[in-house]
Amino acid sequence: MRGRTLAGLLSLLLAAPAWAVSVDLAQLPNGGGPVPNGTVLTDQWRSLGILFSARTADGDPIDAIAHDFGTGLKHLFFSPDVFGAVAIFDFVEPGTATPSDVQHFQLDVYFEAGESATLVALDANGMVVDQSVVDNAAGGDVTMAVTGVLRRVEWRTQGNPGIAGKLIEFTPYTPPDPPDPPDPPDPPDPAPCAAAPIGGCRSAAKAKLAVDARKAGKEKTALRLRAFTAATTRADFGDPVAGTTRYAACIYDAGDRLAGALVVPRAGAACGPKQKPCWKAKKTTGWRYADPSAAADGVKAITAAAGAAGKGTLQMQAGNAARKGRTAMPTGTAAALQGATRVRVQIVTGDAACFEATLGTVTKADGRRLVAKAP
User: Fold this and answer.
1) At a CB cut-off of 8 Å and minimum separation 6, what does 11 contact?
2) Are 65 and 36 in contact (CB under 8 A)?
3) Rounded to an integer, what distance in angstroms lies between the CA atom of residue 236 and that of residue 251?
C-alpha cells in the first residue's frame, strides 16, 4: 500500500533544547494558513531557516511534495514516484538566503521490512561530518539522527520507503565561546635577584627546597620557609593586592652564587583562564597567590602567613606542564646545584621585608633533583 510506504512519520524524538526550531508541514509559518495537499516544498519555511528540495540518486531534480494521505498528518513524499530519491534540507539564516549551520537534526522514519536509507550530514564544504544508516530494516519506525556543524542534511533512500512527518526540528549551531585571552605579558623586572645574597633578611629556623627536573616538561620546584625567628606581620610581606609588591625566590649555591630564581611581578593583576585576581588577602595574617596558568616563571601558588616569633610561614610552588602549554618555569637550577653541600634561599618582596634560610642538609643533588632542608 503506497500510503503505508510513503507515510512514515518524520519527527524529532530527541529531547531538543527549548530553542530548537520546529517546522509543521501542515501549517505555513507566521500565520500563513494550512498547507494544501500537493504543495511543492521549497522555501516556504525560509523564515525559520530551512529550505526543501529533492533529487534522484543520479542528481536529476524532482519535487518534494506535502500530502496528508488521509492520515491527519502532513507528509513529505517524492514526485514522481522514484526509487532511490533524496530529500534535501538546506539551512539558512532565518528569512535570508545566507547559508547557516545547525548542530543537530533527527528523523523518526517508517520503513517497510527490507528497506534501507542513510541520513547524511554535510558541512559548508560538502564534506560528510556524520551519518545514520538503516540497512535492511525490520519494518516500523526507526530513529535516525546526525550531529555536528551541519550546513545540509540529505536523506538518501534505497528503495522507496518515502519520507513523512508532521514536524521537523533542528537545533541552530552555537559556536563555542572564544578562548580566554592569555595573561598579559609581565612588565620587565629589574634584577629581582642579586648576584649574591643580600643582607638584612628575616631568618627562618626551618626550611625545605625541592627541585625535580627528571621529566622534561614536568619540572617542579617547591620552597617552604617557616618558624621565622622574629615575629612577622602582614605588612612585612608587602601588599600585592592593592600595592605593587612583587615576589622573587633567589637560590644560591654554597659559594653564594645565584643558581636559580623564580619571579612573580603580578601585584594587582588577574590570573588564569578566568582572569581572577592573582592575589587575595589571607584573613588578617597574610596573602595568598594562585595562578592556574602558572604564567609567571611557572609559579602556581604562594602563601605568606605572619605570626609570633617561631611562627610564620612563606611558601612557593612552581612547575611546568608542557602538554597543557605551561612551560614558564626556568630550568637548570638542579643542574647548577649538582653536588651542592649547602644551599641558601632568599625570598625578596621588592618593597617590604625579605626572608631567608640556609639549608645545610642536602640529601639529593645529582643534577636532576635537589632536596635540601634546614635544620
Assistant:
1) 107, 108, 165, 166, 167, 168, 169
2) no
3) 21
CA pseudo-torsion sign 230, 232, 235, 238: positive
C-alpha pair distances (Å), 2 with each of 53, 80, 81, 85, 165: 21, 13, 10, 15, 15
Q: Is 117 exposed, middle or buried (0-12, 13-18, 19+ CB in 10 A)?
A: buried
Nearest C-alpha neighbor of 153 from the set 103, 109, 111: 103
Structure confidence at residue 104 (pLDDT): 95
CA 257 to chain centre: 43
Output the CA–CA distances (angstroms, integers) from residue 137 to 75, 76, 82, 114, 232, in the order listed.
Answer: 21, 20, 19, 5, 79
DSSP state of 234: G
| pLDDT tens digit sequence for 3-48 | 333 333 343 333 344 478 988 888 999 888 999 999 999 999 999 9
Distance of CA 273 to the CA centre of its chain: 10
Write out pLDDT tens, residues 136-164. Answer: 888 888 888 999 999 999 999 876 555 56
pLDDT of residue 108: 76
Residue owning grid cell 512519520: 9
For the chain, how far is it from start to end, CA to CA, in angstroms?
94
Cell 627546597, residue located: 209
**pLDDT tens digits, one per residue of 244-273:** 999 999 999 999 999 999 999 999 999 999
**DSSP assignment letter at 197:** P
Q: Which of 309, 332, 310 is nearest to 262 (CA)?
A: 332
For residue 47 the three cell numbers come to 523564515
pLDDT at 14: 38
Helical H segments across 256-355, by residue range? 333-336
Q: Is 147 helix (H, G, I), strand (E, B) or coil?
A: strand
Calpha distance 138→133 (Å, rounded): 13
Q: pTM for the whole thing?
A: 0.52
Q: What is the mean pLDDT of residues 105-115?
A: 83
Which helix or strand (DSSP H or E) is residue 8 part of? Answer: none
Q: Which residue carries 609588591 as its cell?
A: 245
In sequence order, the 6+-apart residues with CB closer than 8 A to the CB of 138 are: 111, 113
In sequence order, which ranges of the chain are alpha helices (DSSP H)? Answer: 2-6, 333-336
Three-state SS sequence of 250-268? EEECCCCCEEEEEEECCCC
